[in-house]
Design goal:
Elements: H1 2-32, H2 48-59, H3 69-80, H4 86-104, H5 110-134, H6 145-171
Amino acid sequence: MNRRLHAADENLALMRTRLSLIPSASVIAGSLICLVPLVAQAPLLPPFALMIFLAWRFLRPEIWPIWAGLPFGLFDDLLSGNPIGGGMLLWTIILLALDFAENRAMWRDYWIDWLAATGALIFYIMGSMVLNALTGGGWLFWPLVPQIVATILLFPFILRLCARLDQRRLTL
């Protein structure tokens, strides 16, 4: 009897690990996309890691604790070349703002989530530009416009991808 309960506890722990591993691995994979060799004079790639992170946050609000932006933001900073701590700060501010807005909102809708994600992603891109400028980088807004437009238009596809991953995660 005791052995059976121990086996059930191990299965439950394994299932919890698997359920949290897929979202974390997808955010890490989003950070790894910036390693693709792409030669451009202006930033073109959207912040895929943050987009995936936000998509999981909108799909499953309970999946990330409020401090989850710290390790993911640090990992993204290390790979993307942004100043260390910038992603940690911006991701945490975004999570706090979304948590505050979610507690105040009466209802949620797809369009409201897209608008919130758009605001969060533009805040991140502009905040990254400001942090880069403070550490000796350039301060130009116009080269960021294609990146902002691509980010806004790609978010629904990232949300759909995370929904498919979530479906697969729950059926395994």
